[in-house]
Amino acid sequence: MAKVALRDVRKTYAGGVQAIHGISMDIADGEFVVIVGPSGCGKSTLLRMVAGLETITSGEIVIGERVVNRLEPTDRDIAMVFQNYALYPHMTVYDNMSYGLRIKGFSKADIEARVQNAAAILELKPYLKRRPRELSGGQRQRVAMGRAIVREPAAFLFDEPLSNLDAKLRVQMRAELQALHRRLGTTSLYVTHDQVEAMTLAHRMIVMNAGRAEQIGAPLEVYARPASTFVASFIGSPPMNLIPQQRNGRAVLFGIRPEHLEPCTEGQAMLSLDVDLVEPLGADTLVYGHVPSAGGGTARIAARLPSSFVPTAQRLSFRYDAANAHYFEPEGGRRIEG
């Protein structure tokens, strides 16, 4: 295990296109950090730079006590798990897991011990003689993780490892990843576009947008105090409602999450919503509609309500706790404190 540090890391492609804009972060020994953001935001590029699969333009990447900028991927003491598993189809599970150790010249006894230990952790022992085509998607991903585990690296790097799995299997594999990290305690850097994966797996997360780190923090901190309208809109489903308002003579964007709106009487109303669409989901109900906004316009918003609440009127009244209200700058979208 080891600490990982990113120090003003930048990536510029030919023609001056900046893919990564000066990201800095210290990742503690044993920490699980998730890089999350939409497609094309630079999250996989950043991970590949840590792995040594992409060169960095400037800055430093430190793994343990070593600056690894100029080291080959094989010399960085990391193990990477890819989205597409990257298994050798003609090899058995055992051979796939042991291949890297054989290349590095480990003894047969050491290889046997490491593979059997990883197979036990991942419940792969019954499948060691099978080939990848004989396995389910979840089993193949376990083999890919087993191949990383046997190396006993300083850090694990995961590049969207669950994105090819169906929804039910993703939930199962998330739980297995959490259990695996609790057992091994290895420093981990994990890329995903799925905010649920980020919220459930991360000790801390980096929310990325257009090559920049919009916010770094613990999942619940990011949810409760988003640093920008981008973060507010990306973390949460449905996303935070953003309504243009005037506050103390100043134009602002008022933010309130759908789950923080509470139905009330007209006399108690802090927001009145004209209903456009009602979606009963079983456990709860989503109500979509529009409210007046500054300048005489309207803003579309959503409310997440208990399934027991059945909207019957075309206009609904809501209140909210002031502690759950957020304010952002209309230009740039940065959070306004106070």
Task: Write a structural description.
This protein is α+β, with helices and mostly antiparallel strands and about 350 residues long. The chain has two domains: about 5-230, Rossmann fold (3-Layer(aba) Sandwich), CATH 3.40.50.300; about 240-330, no CATH class. It contains eight helices and 18 strands. A six-stranded mixed β-sheet has the order 6-7-8-3-9-10, with helices on both faces. Strands 13-17-14-15-16 form a five-stranded antiparallel β-sheet, with no helix packed on it. Strand 4 (about 60-65) and strand 5 (about 65) form a beta hairpin. Helix 2 packs across helix 3, helix 2 (about 95-105) runs parallel beside helix 4 and helix 3 packs across helix 4. It is globular. The two termini are about 40 Å apart. The mean pLDDT is about 95.
